[in-house]
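Hi Prof. W.,

I finally got the N-terminal domain of peptidoglycan hydrolase CwlO-containing protein prediction working! I wasn't sure whether to trim anything, so I left the full sequence exactly as given:
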Amino acid sequence: MRFFGVLATVTALVAAPFASAAAGPLRTDDYPTWDEVQAAKQNEAAAQTEVDRITAKLDELEATATTLTNEALKRGQEYLVATYNRDAAQTSADDLETRATDAAAKADASRRQVGQIAAQLYKSGGDNGTVNLLLNGDKSTELLYKLGTMSQLTAQTVGLRDAAEIAANNASSLRAQADAALAERDRLSTAAETALGAAKDAQAAVDAQVIEEKAHSATLYEQLAALKNTSAAAEQGYREGVAKAAEEAARKAAADAAAAAAAADGGSDSGGNGSAWVPDSGSVASPDEAKQIAFNLLGSYGWGGDQQSCLVQLWTGESGWRVNAYNPDSGAYGIPQSWPANKMSSVADDWPTNAQTQIIWGLNYIRDAYGTPCSAWNKWLSRSPHWY
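And this is what came out:
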């Protein structure tokens, strides 16, 4: 399920409203009532019309949830980019300040040496005029003429004085650059805070939509079952089966589109997916911890240790085993690169942050689609661009 694509610079989505989503929340009066369902049952044509209407509402609910989920992941990506840039600006400012301090110290050291040599010259017979010429750097040729036998010492002194001046100018320039870098850091800090707020708002919108979707979906499946004289579970199972049958073609199309986009961008390949902000997670499992979770689960699927290597290579190619791996080109997310990302909610609602939830979904997918991790890995290798 890997989709190649370049991690493009995240554009100005931070302030964009959710009106950009392809589908908005449905109004209460959009849904069929039970009276309408019962009336439709009396007529075969009307019943089919109502079935089509309910099916369309389910499609809209799923599309809205998917769109909002991807918006949240995009905004999380913006937050990570903003914080990365902020930290880079801070590192640059710190480096420039260190270099400026070193340059100032060199200037001070050179000045002290000039003073020490000037004092020695004075003690050795140099008059006040000579010393003044040394310290001020005026009329260097006249100074050399006056010093005569001390020309080598004078040349060294003039060199030190010039070095001190260069070091002082360098320190001043570096400090100015450091100040500019700090100003940029402050600007980027504000951008990062704005992006974080947008990401939190986006996640809150997704959470609210998921609650609404579950409530309405349950009713819609019951109404569908009533119209067709089946059960809600059967209708949901049938719908999921149809979706799985269409999934492979959709994944291939998305992979091809991502590969074409990468080629248009110069043929570069990210070699993996970027990371997205994980809401309210504190921390997530490391890749090594995620691998151990997966190894512990293999036995429950009837798979032995011989499948470990295939699974490691498969998900290394997909996500690097990172819980928050995010492909901005396709919207695929997580260790198994679920596409769309919110499919993993079928296991648990903590899919954005929980490695085990993602892994269980991924192993279920591998079992149902390929039988074993090694079969999935071999299929992944045989496809260009790679996907499973």
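Residues 44-123 form the longest helix (80 residues). Does that look reasonable to you?

Thanks,
D.
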